[in-house]
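hi! just following up on the protien thing from before. the input was this:
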Amino acid sequence: MKKITESSIELLAIEHLEQSGYKYLYGPDIACDGAKPERESYQEVLLVRRLKNAIECINPTIPEIAREQALKTVLRVATPDLLQTNENFHILLTEGIEVEYRIGSDERGDKVWLIDYNNPDNNEFVVCNQFTVIENNENKRPDIVLFINGLPLVVVELKNPADEKATVKKAFIQLQNYKAAIPVLFQYNAFLVASDGLEAKAGTISSAFSRFLAWKTTDGQQEASHLESQMLTLIAGMLNKKTILDLIRHFIVFEKDKKEDLKTCITTIETIKKLAGYHQYYAVNKAVVTTTTAATDAGDRRGGVVWHTQGSGKSLSMVFYTGKLVLALNNPTVVVITDRNDLDDQLFDTFASCRQLLRQDPQQADSRDEL
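and the predicted 3d structure came back as:
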């Protein structure tokens, strides 16, 4: 029997990603001193030429000077705080980069998009292994990095399933070590994946291990067998071109939570980046489809119903649903009705803390007249 190694798990993952439409690149080849260099240094984590080409391809009507302006914005996104940098970039990634340029004597404003969300095949998907990054004399080499249009949006850490000490938790801890040692790689990160080749879980750069969740279906119709590799299910169900772009644009929030120190009475704002679970993703998308169908001229005005159990993230599902519906129905009015005041306050706080995804400030009504 052939011995299972971490390298063989890595190659299996790459093979399945290639089957999903990713192009394979070997990290040492594209390094600054490699056979086909695409990086000026080991601290550079963007594949700049690929990003520049993608910006030109996706935004052909935008003048070159404005496209260059957008590229510089991406290159200069860094701030002293990693999570704040990540949030700032996420806004650019999902809402477009505002640019200005002159046509004749007229000043015009426009948006440059880094990803074509409407046409997944109009983007370049790359899987790269052994991608070495050096920052502050720290030399690290994550197992797999997924690039979309030259942007390192997903980092995957793998462990050997044949080693009983090499668990998904160990892969998670390794990702935290990378985040501390080479934060430059995580400025642009959408989410992380930790796997031992069998189990696989996804989360964000601010997620605790308990918030890293498995993706249990490839199509949203039925859960995969527990005998199947969670890693391969996650690759097919979560990392395919359509789903990963949908997740990035509509199913990530930076939730703001006020924390008050009882001793000093100082209030601080804590940011937590959250990624939808597979049950939220498929439930919300089905509800959006039934709602948009019901709202057509021929529709019966009866939208879908989603039933969730306690602790399954109902409040965030409602936020994801509303955020996507805002775009699907051209900014509709959404009224949320609850049957308890404490629940109303809790739900409003969730909506208010996710303003960026909603693209507006929610309002809370205290009476019928105010509503």
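The two ends are 69 Å apart (CA to CA).
The first strand starts at residue 23 and ends at 26.
cheers
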